[in-house]
Amino acid sequence: MAVAALPAILVAMSINATVSFGYIFKLLVFLAVFAIGQAPCVAAEEVIQADTRYLYVQPGQTLHNIVRRLYPQRQKDWVKLEQQIVRDNPEAFVDGDKTKMKAGARLELPRRMVVKPRPIARKPSQVGEVIMARGETLAINQQKVSRDLSVGDAVYVGDKIVTGEDGFLRLHMVDNARLDLRCYSIMVIEKYDLQKTNRRSILNLLQGSLRKVTGEIGKWTEDIYELKTPVASVGVRGTEYALRVFQSKGCDGSVDTNDEGLYIKVINGWVDVHNKAAKTEVAKNDTLYIPLPDKAPVEKVIKAGVFEPVKATEPVQDEPVVEEKSTSAWWWAVLGVIIIALAI
């Protein structure tokens, strides 16, 4: 009987084995399909994290989103990156249309750009303060942002100082220098550093009129002091001077010069002036005129009102005429009394 039942048992075992094998097979197939279905997504995520150069397009993905996820720091380049991907992978797009990307296509991607952190912007150093202001006066900083200047306002390295037709500024600098900037003037504070070493003052007068009393910078031999102009540069050693350049028309009381040359007047001390053509020293009470950047100084009579406004003379008021009291009436009265007395 046992022998007779053996074929039935073997059949049952084979059926169970078949069922188990079929179950296991189906499970493996399911896992494989699941893995295959998830693999591209994992690969896409790895591209974002591992920065590989390839990505398999998933159904529903757009080039727009891929570029923004892979290159978040290159926002300005997003359009160019999309164009480059389409150009490098023509087989992945229908008719070269970036909005028609084929699912399952393998994209070759541009390498990421290493974005270096931007250096922390340092606040510019204050180098002076406005102590007098009149008319239109303003400053333009290195970021091209302008601001009006009034008494008490600070000026900084990199500022471009501008005065209008009736503008006037007096600046007190950190080294106790005093600087007067007159009408229609443009001056850039390129460098101004008062330290124990490497003391330097570099100003650039692009046009206009300026009068300066130098401070601490310029007193030491190793100090760097320079006032640039379009015609020549000026170096000093403890002095006071005035100059005018690129300003043919007078304003705010100054007179016309009818040329764009450089005029210099030394009030105290001395200055050295140099350009492409020559180097000249100018002493106290002397003046100098240089017509062009490649020309040496020439003799020229510099009239009053070139450096500073001509003071308007006050109209002389006539003294009030005090009329002398007439004595004729008094004498007539006296004469009348005498005549009456004689008649009596």
Short structural summary:
This protein is of the alpha+beta class and 344 residues long. It has helices at 2-50, 63-70, 78-88, 328-343; strands at 54-56, 106-108, 126-134, 137-140, 146-148, 154-156, 160-163, 168-173, 178-181, 186-193, 200-213, 224-228, 233-236, 240-245, 262-268, 270-274, 279-283, 287-290.
Explained architecture:
With 344 residues, this protein is of the alpha+beta class. The protein has 2 domains: 6-108, no CATH class; 126-290, Jelly Rolls, CATH 2.60.120.1440. 24% of the residues lie in helices and 28% in strands. It has helices at residues 2-50, 63-70, 78-88, 328-343; strands at 54-56, 106-108, 126-134, 137-140, 146-148, 154-156, 160-163, 168-173, 178-181, 186-193, 200-213, 224-228, 233-236, 240-245, 262-268, 270-274, 279-283, 287-290. The strands form 2 sheets. It has a 16-stranded mixed sheet that branches. Strand 4 and strand 5 form a beta hairpin. The protein starts with a helix and ends with a helix. Mean pLDDT is 78; it is low at 5-15, 29-52 and 313-327.
On the 0-100 scale, what is the average pLDDT?
Answer: 78
Counting helices, strands and paired strands, the structural category is alpha+beta
Radius of gyration, CA atoms, in whole angstroms: 46 Å
- Note the gap between the termini: 205 Å
Low-confidence stretches: 5-15, 29-52, 313-327
Based on the structure given, which CATH architecture of the largest domain is correct? Answer: Sandwich
Main beta-sheet annotation: 16 strands, mixed
Which term fits the overall shape?
A: elongated
* Fraction of residues in H or I helices: 10-25%
Task: Tell me the number of strands.
Answer: 18
CATH topology of the largest domain: Jelly Rolls
> What fraction of the residues are assigned to beta strands by DSSP?
25-35%
Number of helices: 4
- Total individual domains: 2
Assign the CATH class of the largest domain. Answer: Mainly Beta
H/E order of the elements? HEHHEEEEEEEEEEEEEEEEEH
